[in-house]
Amino acid sequence: MEKQEKKLITKEFNTRLYEKPAVNFEVDRFDSAILKHGYNVHHHRALKCPCTNKGTGSALPDCENCRGLGWFYINKTKTKALMQNLGNNPKYDSWTEKNSGTTTITTLFDDDVSYMDKFEIIDLEANYTQILDIRYVEDKDLLFSFTVYQPLKVYDIFAFVDSRSPLMKLSSKEENESDWDYELQNNKIVFNSDKWYDIYESGNMSVSVRYKHTPVYCVIDIQREVFKARDQSDCSDIPCDVGKNDLHLRGMPQKSIGRRLHYIWDANNSDGPSVFDNSTY
Ligand SMILES: [Zn+2]
């Protein structure tokens, strides 16, 4: 049957009202505040990983696209973002662990932020400590652990011996080329398998690390996702068919809520030894 198309009724407005003074946004001022006061950030765009099982909705634990997390990241761009309330949500009724590590992120309309996107603040440094979840990949003879954040520098790294002995401080390949314990490779800590494999195999390898990294926030909510305002600014330098004295519809900044990455997921999910970069630029 042919689809019935009903007639559209267009309402007529009193044109006299267009002449009255009215307030309007100046979008350039909002954008300029972000560019002047914002941090330099890397924006990583999130996509759901197609490795996900259709029945259970869970990701494959050995998927090297998403590290078993179910999300992968592409097309990293460098931009600016306002990050406010870094740290805690300052409400008296919510001084709890669950609110720490949240921030509001204000970004330019063109940055096109979506749910689960990551923002890495390259102007800041933070410390993080974690107990490593160590894996062994046999065909590559690779004894390693992912870290939640990509370390800039490892400060302290200790292995557990037993409850009645002091911890053992590990030495990096840089410090001790002939008798090294670990080496930093992007977001992985790789162990000297000649020295550590037997201990790993016996199930007694437990390592704790403290490192410096650039803080990363993951978008968990978007408070203002799509907002366009009518604005009178001159747009002679961008393609526009609106008359000079009329208002233009322009995109306003987006406002999202970000959470420190280690509250969203930890590094212990993956069985695979690497992560592919699926960026398409
Ligand atoms: Zn995957």
Identify the bound ligands.
zinc ion
H/E element order = HEEEEEEEEEEEHEEEEEH
CA-based shape: elongated
Major sheet: order of its strands? Answer: 1-2-3-16-13-4
Question: How far do the termini sit from each other?
Answer: 45 Å
Q: Tell me the count of domains.
A: 2
Backbone CA Rg: 26 Å
The total beta strand count reads 16
What is the residue-mean pLDDT, rounded to a whole number? 86
Summarize the structure.
The protein is mainly β and 281 residues long. The protein contains three helices and 16 strands. The longest helix has 11 residues, at 27-37.
Notable traits:
single chain; 281 residues; mainly beta; 2 domains; 4-stranded antiparallel β-sheet; 3 helices; 16 strands; 9% helix; binds zinc ion
Q: Can you tell me about this structure?
A:
This protein is 9% helix and 36% strand. The longest helix has 11 residues. A 6-stranded antiparallel barrel has the order 1-2-3-16-13-4. The radius of gyration is 26 Å and the shape is elongated. The chain contains 3 helices and 16 strands. With 281 residues, it is mostly beta strands. It folds into 2 domains: 160 residues, no CATH class; 86 residues. It binds zinc ion. The site of zinc ion (ZN) has 7 residues, from loops.
Secondary-structure map:
Blueprint: H1 27-37, E1 39-48, E2 71-87, E3 102-107, E4 118-121, E5 126-131, E6 135-137, E7 142-146, E8 151-159, E9 168-169, E10 182-185, E11 188-191, H2 193-201, E12 207-213, E13 216-224, E14 228-231, E15 248-251, E16 254-260, H3 261-264
Antiparallel strand pairs: 1-2, 1-4, 2-3, 3-16, 4-13, 5-12, 6-7, 7-11, 8-9, 8-12, 10-11, 13-16, 14-15
The protein binds zinc ion.
